[in-house]
Amino acid sequence: MSDDNDLIRSDHPGGVVCLTLNHGPVNALSAEGLLAFADTIKALEAEEAVRAIVIASPFKVFSAGLNLKQAQGFDMTDQHAIVRGLNEGFLALFACAKPTVVAVNGAAIAGGLFYVLASDYRIAVPSASFGLAEVRVGADFPLGPLEIARATLSPNDLRRLMLTGQPMSAEDAKTSGMVDRIVTPEDLMQTALAEAATLGQIPPRTYASVKRQIRGDVIALIEAGIAAGANAPESGWFNDETVPAMRAMIGG
Questions:
Q1: What DSSP string describes 120-132?
Q2: Domain map of the chain by residue range?
Q3: Residue 99 and residue 247: Cα distance in Å, rounded?
Q4: For residue 38, which of 15, 92, 216, 236 is within the disulfide window of CB 3.0 to 4.6 Å?
Q5: Rounded CA gap, 194 and 156, in Å?
Q6: Is 4-187 in CATH node 3.40.640.10?
């Protein structure tokens, strides 16, 4: 996401704001887009009239993570930039004091899964899938996404997703607790907005306080890591296996 139109805001009853990820065709992640997403989440957090936030996508793929063809050409500056974007973009969502609901209408893969894991309530359609493919493309996890995954996935799901790189179905994700509800595509947005409005009725300071009780240690760990240089790892993000693995993944 990089253009103003790549993140579309719409306002709904009950103080609910929907942020639509609109970087077609697969909501590929970029450093500038993730930092813009972080700024938007923080701005909504500061708006008193906003009671809850929904994250949605208009595309068949919710978010496919990095554009692997483009990422093969990343130099050290590019690697540091995307690591910063991943750390700060998803930390902003994970730490947001207001209720957040994600409406998953398709595949949420690799970095794209962190829109799901960092949200408070997760709704998906039956055809959705969820995966962390980083190991298959020769990349480990930046600090922010790693700690969010540790905090929100069971140890067994963490093992399964991170070490195989293979996706889970919506039904498996619901059984594991990664997804809260599965609804039809026709009902997805209506359900997400309704759930957000319900969460938005909870006393907001209390909601923020309880959320901080649950997540505060992880947030502090990520913030301390960022302050200590986690946004710019000395050796970069990629290793000598990364580009060949990315090339093999996309077939060229």
A1: SEEEE-TT-EEE-
A2: 4-187
A3: 39
A4: 92
A5: 31
A6: no
